[in-house]
Amino acid sequence: MPFDLVWPEGHARLDLPAAGASAVDAALALAPVLPALALLQDWIGAPLHDLRPAADAPWPAAALTLAWGEGGRLALPWRLLPWGRTPPAALPLHHWPCWPARLLLQALPAARLPARERVPGALLLLPASFAGADCALELHAPAGGLPLPRLGGVVWQPQAGSLQLAAARPLADSGDVGARVWLEQTLEVDARAWFGGWPQPLELAAGAARLEIDGRPCAEGPLLPAGRGWGLRLQRLAAVSEPLAWT
C-alpha cells in the first residue's frame, strides 16, 4: 500500500509492499517504520504535516525515487530534498542513482580571452590549477527536468588521477556565464554527492577539455601540465561566422 507523506512544501510517496488494504493492515505496516520516518523528517528539516494512505494517483515523476528498507520505495520531490545535508546513516534509503555530470575546471571573465589570442596551438593557462583551487560539478542533463545545484569544493588531482567529492557543497548560480573550461569527459557521479559529499573518490585523469564563452563552444584540445598547474592547448577552434557546434 502506498502512503502520502505531506509537508507544507510538497508530498512524498512511500510504498510499503507488506501493507494491506484495510486500516488495521496499514497501521501494522507503518508501525515498524515510524522511527525511520522520524529520521526522514529530521533530514528534510521539517515535521510531517500529514500521513495518509495514498489515493489512486500515479507515482510521482519529478522526484528522486529510492529503495526503502526491504522491498519498499520512496519518491521525494525535488523541492523537498535538503541539498547539502547528509542523510542519517540509519535512514533505510538504498539504490541511489548515478547522475551524468561535467567538471568545471576554470571560470574567467570573457574579456580576458580576446579573439586575437585564441589561435590554434595557443596554451590557455588555468589559474585555478596553480592555486590548488576547487573545481565545480554540474549535472550534464537536469534530473527530472529541473535544475539541480552545482557542486563546489570538488578537488581534482590529475597527477593522482582522482576526483575528491568528500567536501562537495551546493553552489548558488552566479548567473555570470563568461568563459569556462570544462573537462570533455562526462562523469557518472553518485547522487549522494549532492547531499554533503561522497567519500569515495572517482578515478579521473587529465584528458581533453573544452572552452566555452557565453555558453557557446569556442575551442577544444588536450590538457597539458604547465609547471605546478595545467593548461588547455587550443587545438580545434570553432568558426566565429558559423553556428558553434561540434561534430
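(the above was protein one; protein two follows)
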Amino acid sequence: MNEFTLEELNLLLGVFEKAGVEESAGEEGEMLKRLKAAQENRQELESMEFDDCLGGACKL
C-alpha cells in the first residue's frame, strides 16, 4: 500500500482547511480526522532518531 509522505499529508490538511471543512462535518470531517491522525503518526516516525530504539525502548 502506498502511504502519503509528511509533505503530502500537510498539503492535504491545508486543502481541507482552505475548504473550511470541520471535524464535525459528516464524512468530510471523518476524513479530516483520519488525515490529522495519519499526519501526527508520520511526523512522529520521521522525527525519531535511531537512538530512540536502543535498549528496546523504541516507540514503534
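Reviewer note on protein two: Helices lie at 6-18, 26-47.
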